[in-house]
Known about the structure:
Elements: H1 3-15, H2 20-25, E1 28-34, H3 41-56, E2 65-71, H4 79-88, E3 93-96, H5 99-106, E4 114-119, E5 138-142, H6 145-148, H7 152-159, E6 165-170, H8 176-190, E7 194-199, H9 206-215, E8 220-223, H10 233-242, E9 247-249, H11 252-256, E10 261-264, H12 267-282, E11 299-303, H13 304-309, H14 316-321, E12 324-326
Parallel strand pairs: 1-2, 1-3, 3-4, 4-5, 6-7, 6-8, 8-9, 9-10, 11-12
Antiparallel strand pairs: 10-11
Helix pairs in contact: 3-12, 4-5
Amino acid sequence: MQRREFIALLGGATANWPVRALAQKARVRIGFLASGAAGSANSTAQVENLKQGLRENGLVDGRDYVLDVQFAAGDYELFPDMARKLVQAGARMLLVNTIASTRAAQNVNPPVPVVMLTINDPVGTGLVASLARPGGYTTGMATLHEDLTPKTLEFQREVVPKAAVIAALFNPANPTNPLFVAKLSVAAGAKGMTVLPFALKLPSELDAVFSALAEQRPDTLQFITDSGNVDLTDRIAALAIKHRIPTFSNYSQFAVLGGLLTYGTTERDLFIRASSYVRRILNGAAPGELPVEQPTKIALVINLKTAKALDLSLPPTLISRADEVIE
């Protein structure tokens, strides 16, 4: 091939999608619309999990791709501008982990592939047409939080048999969160329990919201998973211990960072699995034809250090069922 022809071919590859030739000949710029804050423990872990997943799929940072991460620090109104800037800077694919960032990525013009790293109910929220055939430019991983949130009530009753009032901490900016709270309320009502919802839209509101929550003296706290608020998990766990409130969630890392008990998927596994979509799209697959996957592994994680701090004695049968026990 003549040098002039090669340059013309490479130029054509950078102007069109898929980018099979680009993936083989030059580093691809990949944008990540992160919900959390730069430098937080959660954001740092997410970036590392993502890079690990890409490595496991044969993509090496700095050799095959450049990862351009933009952080919203919990302010979801920033996502549209962040997405535009990433594409203008040359990002050929956008990675997302909350509904607001997915919609922002889907609205860039011209469109680019969008890979969901971990998204609540993408069909119900209208992000994709179906799990089997998502359509458009979007695919990736879905969570099972909509099904798992009520399940934690069973664990709450095992840990606090007389629990009657549950505080639910959620993000109203996440369209699935109010639905999860409503579903939790129905399930709790059937067990003679009451759910008190507390909205946490921005990280700066945490202290005030938790103060109001603690004044109600709930028996337990359900942390409704949201990608922005998970950045606050260590602070939420510490506040709950301070006010002696047992905490439950579907976000596994919450137990690692001080929550009492979690039952759900691990973000690490989802991020790593989502990386396979990046590889397939770079190899020429059409995003809308790649089925959205759901996790197959659900983990029960219990933090005995937190139980001790709360003076709680957990049933041995519950501990024996845990996939991970933090001591």
